[in-house]
Design goal:
The chain contains 1 helix and 7 strands, in the order ββαβββββ. A hairpin with a 5-residue loop joins strand 1 and strand 2. It has one domain. The longest helix is centred in the middle third of the chain and has 9 residues. The protein starts with 18 loop residues before the first strand and ends in a 7-residue tail after the last strand. The protein is mostly beta strands.
Length: 90
């Protein structure tokens, strides 16, 4: 019997309701409200796949609708925006 791939939460994720990324005017995601530390690709992808990623902009809060190689896509119902993240360190 074939089944969909399973994504398990870890003990680290167990009591986390959501992961918040902050969207700057440069369309990059940041870990902090001051927009000093760009969000890492692996962290954003994991939060998205767990269904717990929230993107906060200056005047809106989004639930991302798609995960792409370039980033996550958010929309306000009229305009789709691709939010980029920092490449993971090797």
């Amino acid at each position: 019997m074939n089944m969909l791939n399973t994504i398990y939460e870890t003990g680290h994720d167990l009591h986390v309701a959501n992961y918040v990324a902050y969207l700057h005017t440069d369309k990059k995601l940041y870990e902090d409200e001051a927009h000093k530390v760009q969000a890492k690709k692996a962290d954003v992808e994991k939060a998205f796949k767990l269904g717990r990623l929230i993107v906060v902009a200056a005047d809106k809060t989004y639930l991302p609708v798609a995960l792409m190689a370039a980033g996550v896509v958010v929309t306000d119902g009229t305009t789709a925006t691709t939010c980029t993240m920092a490449a993971d360190e090797a």
